[in-house]
Amino acid sequence: MDIYHEAHGNEAGRPLVLIHGALSGIGTSFGTILPLLAKTRRVIAVELQAHGRTPDVDRPLTVEHFASDVVELLDRLGVGRADVFGWSMGAAVGLRLGTDHPDRVGRLVLASVSFDDDGLHPGLLDGIQDLRPEHLHGSEFHEEYLRTAPDPAGWANLVTKMKVLDANLPQWTPEQIHALAAPTMIVLADSDIVQPEHAVRMFRLLGGAVPGDLTGLPACRLAVLPGTTHTSIPQRADWLAPMVDEFLTEVGPHGQG
Questions:
Q1: Which of 6, 40, 72, 243 has its CA 20 to 30 A from that of 30?
Q2: From the CA atom positions of the chain, what is the Rg in Å?
Q3: Region of residue 82 (phi > 0: left; psi between -120 and 50: alpha; otherwise: beta)
Q4: What distance in Å separates the CA atoms of residue 145 and residue 23, rounded to the nearest whole number?
Q5: Residues in domain AB hydrolase-1 (predicted)?
Q6: How does residue 128 score in pLDDT terms, banded at 50, 70 and 90?
Q7: Is 250 in a helix, a strand, or coil?
Q8: How far, in Å, CA of 103 to CA of 101, rounded?
Q9: What would the pLDDT profile of 22-50 be if each residue is shown by its tens digit?
Q10: C-beta separation of 92 from 251 below 8 A
Q11: Region 228-234: what's the mean pLDDT?
């Protein structure tokens, strides 16, 4: 499959892969933060199967397929290891890269991620199977798709395939999260689709929530954005960019920094 990607910033800089959310593309997920992050590093922004400029193929949409596609893209580009910043569905792809392809990942920034169904607010996906493509007509995601997709008529098929993914969300065990080797920054909106208690639980599993003055700072981070919803996280670039940049440039495992 021919995966669309864009390269920005310093070609010699440490690579950072940006992975967008469901039904989104590079513009709606990272349009404002991408140029800020590209000031100091090589940014590789991708569009996954059936999203944006990447055509669909005869294959279900799964987080596992997406992660394998990103690895294949890195192989084509000759990139051995990259940092990853994913939002929403893209954060799940980033987490899958971290657990299933640990040798390809440096640091992870995961915005709005849940490692099991209990992490979402109860009932959040009730009725998702009743969602019809036309319900999203006029949204920023639909308008971006019409501008960028090789087949603008494919929107209905994308929504249909995404409903199947939503009904079979990826799952990780607490043991898998605890064993994650990549230093990880969890980002959450204070009014997100993921419950804050779940983000704190994940932070603890990664080694966080310790008295840092006594023990030293852990390799993981937790950032909660105030007055922010799930879909408005991409609009918080002025807040996120310096935090993400500082985390990614910190000296740490895998020769980073």
A1: 72
A2: 17
A3: beta
A4: 8
A5: 16-241
A6: confident
A7: coil
A8: 6
A9: 999 999 999 999 999 999 899 999 999 99
A10: no
A11: 98
